[in-house]
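#onboarding

Welcome to the new folks! Below is a worked example of what a typical request in this channel looks like: someone posts a single protein sequence, and someone else replies with the predicted structure as tokens. Don't worry about understanding the tokens yet, we'll cover that in week two.

Example request:
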Amino acid sequence: MKIIRYGFFGEDDAQRLFLHHYLVALAVGQNWRFEVDANFPLVGGTKSRVKAQFDEACDTGISSFRHD
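Example response:
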């Protein structure tokens, strides 16, 4: 089974939980699954912080997880 790792960078736990459950449902019946990286180096927290660090979060995600 292939594992697709991702880091979460968002405003709150509700967004994190929604994304987790969505990705679990998306992978049902597939030969791959998603796994969150609990050590993702950036933390969102507020809307303004997420907006300010969005480019850096994308760069980190692409370089750390090799997704594009």
